[in-house]
Amino acid sequence: GEMLGSREQFRAVTRDPRWRSLPIDFVEHTLRYDGMPISSESEVLNLIERWNANADKTTQELVRLLRCFRVVEENKPVIQAWMRSQGWLSMNGAVPNLPQLKGVREIANGSASRGKKPRNNLAGSQLAEAQRTLIRDKEDTRISEEEEATFVHYMGASVAGTGHSFELGSQQRLVQMDA
């Protein structure tokens, strides 16, 4: 928490390649910290993505960390778009009935973080720098997502979702969508 209270210390830790090897308890504690020096909750999603840069984390671990994202009406589209890109949320807001997605609906609708105000703990030049970084990260993500193949996730004969990353169980399959 407090040891990462300054933007410089925070960035030194979260930009370090070893960030992705930190234990989930440490990452979760960091992402829950009220004084986290971030410009918006969108940075929480970037930190989760960076932690999972090797795509080696389980869906349950990612859902656990997403509970640190403080949803309000203004940022709800951001978290919902992120979940749709993972194949966890359909366009109509439905969540596939899979055990590893327990809690996704509550995160998407904001009830998991009810009462917690979104963080915006930066001002002046730190805020401007953080916003520039966020724009760069979004552009990098957009480019990498355009390069990624999109798949349809089937449970038996039923479509469970679309996205880029899935955990498959028995009687489930992926079909690559046409570009």
From TrEMBL:
Boundaries of every BACK domain copy: 8-71
InterPro entries from the UniProt entry: BACK
Pfam families cross-referenced by the UniProt entry: BACK
Lineage: Eukaryota, Sar, Alveolata, Dinophyceae, Gonyaulacales
Name of the protein this chain belongs to: BACK domain-containing protein
